[in-house]
Amino acid sequence: MKITELLHNATDPQYSYEIIPPKRGGSANDLIEVVNGLIDLEPPYIDVTSHSAQVYYEEQAGGTWKRHVKRKRPGTLGMCAAIRGRFGIETVPHLLCYGFSREESEDALIELNYLGIQNVMALRGDDNGYKKPLINDRTRNEFASDLVKQISDMNQGRYLENLIDSSPSDFCVGVAGYPEKHFEAPNLTWDILNLKRKVETGAAYITTQMCFDNQQIIEFEKKCREVGITVPIIPGLKILTSKKQLMSLPKNFAVQIPEALAAEVESAKEGHVHEVGIEWAKKQSEELIEAGFQNIHFYLLMTSKHVRKVVGPLRKMA
Ligand code: FAD
Question: Is 224's C-beta closer than 6 angstroms to any atom of ligand 1?
């Protein structure tokens, strides 16, 4: 079922989750355990992230450097199919522009169609040094809106080549939004107008970057509505679990940690930071639902134990 249908049909607030495929060569068992821990929370769907190839250099004898290209976490499509097959939960594979040619994206979409997976999240990805060297005559989508356009074209039976049998696909496409603006955008309005372009090209819903400040999420939604974006906006939340995240999350995701939260984390005893994170996320969720948001998306690390303490009580209250 499409995410938009799942959300539309729901009578209570819905909580979805985002997980990361195992590292290259790792086992899927740990991730399956995480999903196992979410089952009784009845997730409407689970997102599985995608990872573009990374470039690294190895010093050779004689002082030269050899360039390697490696995808650290392959397996997004396989994990989606495994979770859907085993647990009957809808999954949303993330597809990226960077690190993939348009032909590879089309192949991935055809495979998803065969697997019966109808939902995808279209993202640009970040430059891991792979951006420049395009493979001969292959092409790459530059912005997420280009990938959305490619998927919308497929939904109308327009593939990259003219095919004899070009049955249209029927994908529901999600895209990313940034309550604190994307780090490359000169300002929030500019970024929101680019977000609008993704919606006009065919995106059916928006999931936001993690944000710890509800006021920013509410303002972001208001601004989106003002420019005419009408699709569902799903706030993304993350539960803080360690002091080092006070530095790593702003650095890696260009988000701010509100002063009050940072102060609570700082004064928490080692080993108790997750309690602060759980309380903050619970309060954030309650306020967002009160403000009219019907769906909340949680970014998980390799465990369901913290989010269970947030979503379990919220579901009981509903
Ligand atoms: P875009 O929408 O293409 O925007 C990128 C930047 O370009 C923005 O500043 C935008 O304003 C600007 N822009 C857009 N269109 C144009 C245009 N036509 N002309 C000029 N400027 C333009 N990363 C991963 O690698 N794997 C994942 O699985 C993953 N999942 C994510 C899930 C969510 C919900 C979110 C919020 C992010 C995720 N990311 C993931 C991170 C994402 O790939 C990065 O934030 C990336 O830098 C931007 O991706 P985007 O899809 O928002 O890009």
Answer: no
Which domain, by its residues, includes 30?
3-317
> Ligand 1, residues 3, 182, 207: which to mutate, most atoms within 8 A of Cβ?
182
DSSP state of 201: H
Is 201's C-beta closer than 6 angstroms to any atom of ligand 1?
no
Q: Whose CA is nearest to atom 42 of ligand 1?
A: 125
How far away, in angstroms, is 144 Cα from ligand 1 center?
Answer: 6
Domain harbouring 280, CATH code:
3.20.20.220
Our count of domains for the chain comes to: 1
Closest residue by CA, ligand 1 atom 26 = 50
Q: For 177-232, what is each residue's pLDDT tens digit?
A: 999 999 999 999 999 999 999 999 999 999 999 999 999 999 999 999 999 999 99
pLDDT digits (tens, 9 = 90+) for 31-51: 999 999 999 999 999 999 999
Q: What are the strands, taking DSSP E only, across the chain?
A: 14-19, 45-48, 54-59, 65-70, 90-96, 119-123, 172-177, 205-210, 233-238, 295-299
User: What does the pLDDT look like over 89-123, one tens digit per residue?
Assistant: 999 999 999 888 899 999 999 999 999 999 999 99
CA–CA distances in Å: residue 211 to residues 134, 235, 256: 34, 8, 8
52 lines ligand 1 (CB under 6 A): yes
